[in-house]
Amino acid sequence: xxxxxxxxxxxxxxxxxxxxxxxxxxxxxxxxxxxxxxxxxxxxxxxxxxxxxxxxxxxxxxxxxxxxxxxxxxxxxxxxxxxxxxxxxxxxxxxxxxxxxxxxxxxxxxxxxxxxxxxxxxxxxxxxxxxxxxxxxxxxxxxxxxxxxxxxxxxxxxxxxxxxxxxxxxxxxxxxxxxxxxxxxxxxxxxxxxxxxxxxxxxxxxxxxxxxxxxxxxxxxxxxxxxxxxxxxxxxxxxxxxxxxxxxxxxxxxxxxxxxxxxxxxxxxxxxxxxxxxxxxxxxxxxxxxxxxxxxxxxxxxxxxxxxxxxxxxxxxxxxxxxxxxxxxxxxxxxxxxxxxxxxxxxxxxxxxxxxxxxxxxxxxxxxxxxxxxxxxxxxxxxxxxxxxxxxxxxxxxxxxxxxxxxxxxxxxxxxxxxxxxxxxxxxxxxxxxxxxxxxxxxxxxxxxxxxxxxxxxxxxxxxxxxxxxxxxxxxxxxxxxxxxxxxxxxxxxxxxxxxxxxxxxxxxxxxxxxxxxxxxxxxxxxxxxx
Length: 531
Ligand code: XMP
What we know:
Elements: E1 2-6, H1 12-21, E2 26-30, H2 35-41, E3 45-48, H3 65-69, E4 74-77, H4 79-87, E5 91-107, E6 120-121, E7 127-141, E8 147-151, E9 159-162, E10 167-170, H5 182-193, H6 202-217, E11 221-226, H7 230-243, E12 247-253, H8 261-272, E13 276-281, H9 283-290, H10 296-319, E14 328-332, H11 337-349, H12 363-367, E15 370-372, H13 380-389, H14 394-397, H15 417-436, H16 446-449, E16 452-466, E17 469-482, E18 490-491, H17 496-509, E19 513-518
Parallel strand pairs: 1-2, 1-3, 3-4, 4-10, 11-12, 11-14, 12-13, 14-15, 17-19
Antiparallel strand pairs: 5-7, 5-8, 6-7, 8-9, 9-10, 16-17, 17-18
Helix pairs in contact: 6-7, 7-13, 9-10, 15-17
Xanthosine-5'-monophosphate binds at residues 355, 357-358, 401, 403-405, 452, 486, 523, 527-529.
């Protein structure tokens, strides 16, 4: 196994992710763990992460002595390289300029780490790497025993190696995808140099996570808000695997879910997994409170607040020990790693609120419950893989994201049950066709080729003709986007044939809608949802 010592970089989890991708088991621990801990951990290799700090400011940000005494391979990344150099007798200086972003690094001297790994060759025959840099300080003198492994014009010592001791360090970040060969480099370190065994699979993660949940929860009880989304579903399945009936899921149906979604969730969790699930039909309450409210932000706030109220009422019942329960002391959430980063980063660089996102933040304090977040270290695709390994159906796990306020933000303006019913049916037709239409070139369905697709209800009426009669009915807009991060998105160039089929089916099958339009706006300046 590999030990990753974290010096406080935002991307340390990415190192762990790359190591897991090489099927090697790893753990992240703070940089100041004790020497005894490191010895007991007995790593095959150690990776020192980057940091926000500079080596000068932070005397306490050092690698423990055991790192150097153990005789195992060590890889320093960015700050990890600087502290390696400083601790082993080299020199680090504060750079006058920060180097940030894309850089081309020249590889030197045939090291076990970089040999044969390159993106291109210069006319002179130098092997070059395309990398991502982010640093102010730099190593200006190598420690005794080291040789130069990489350089750039701005950073002459961008990589060093002491092959006798198997110490390697790079100033750039191999863990981010912008460093093209980063994955190959990390894999080389953990597999070849450290000799770790590539035998870690998702099944092992389940076993470890189940153990950890049992340790944390003991014989106490847990409640979880099931939304039908990927993250809460996978969290529920995992926790249920660990503690069975000590988990109670509360599924708040706000009446703004997709067609048959509530039944599907119940069938899966109550039916197949035999989990305890309480379904709360709160649609009356939501419709009543939303009635007459047209402002998107006001709608979001109402839905968010009601959701918390309803959930809290259920949780209080469980806490009071109703229905044979002891009372829950834990609240489980499907928080995943990007959420952790986002909420940490949001404090410093939060700009104006474009949309107030619906989540249950603040709930645990209000409820006086401890938090259980078994997915906190995982990325979205790892969560999906975990879900499939836990036996959840791939269609559920690979579903497009669905916003917390549900159809509430896809019915423009005033929300009515009648509108929600029409929208649900139109949306289901669109999704069904997207799943069926395959792209010739890739063989993939258009559902898989798009990141998010849905129908939007427009409460305006237009004139149409059907048979011999005039119609005067509502409009639906179709939205389909492609994006990797949901921060920017392009509208998807769906085949005309597909659009034609969808519009024909909606207008024929959903009485009350007589016009279908396709949204051809990118984000920015438009957003993905209409509200
Ligand atoms: P926008 O519309 O801001 O959406 O471009 C970006 C992504 O966020 C989703 N979204 C939400 N997800 N609660 C959520 O859990 C919300 O309140 C919410 N609002 C938007 C949206 O579906 C898209 O994937």
